[in-house]
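Morning F.,

Quick status update on the modeling queue. The single chain you submitted on Monday has been processed. Sequence for confirmation:
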Amino acid sequence: ALSLELEHVDLNDAVLRVTGKRGKTRVVPLPAQTAHWLQLYLQEARAALVRKPCPLLMLSDRGKPLMRQTAYQRLGRMCRKAGLPPGIGPHTLRHSYAVHLLKGGADLRAVQELLGHESIATTQVYTQLDMQEVQRKYRNAHPRA
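Structure tokens below.
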């Protein structure tokens, strides 16, 4: 996410073009509310941060590329504020995203494509989780559960 460039954001179609580990590009749809907040960020917050041209979407409060460590610190702060347990990182969010999609009835192949997995077996791991354990972890980690 930190390396996502502005040119890969298409708010008209509400999608992101994401390039994965092996240079494979995939299109990820944005929920309407996410597209809305991203539009506000681009028009207001990011526009105020830019000091000199930068192709990256996410900028620090100094208008420079947002560093990985800073992103982790901010995520940790938000999680603490929300009363979530420590240790939640971007991979936890990705995992939660996949589980929510599958629990909501999403097609396994669609989730595979969204996550950029080469093999369906990698995605199937999410379906083999003990659903009671998933629900327990969800209730412990999700602020509105």
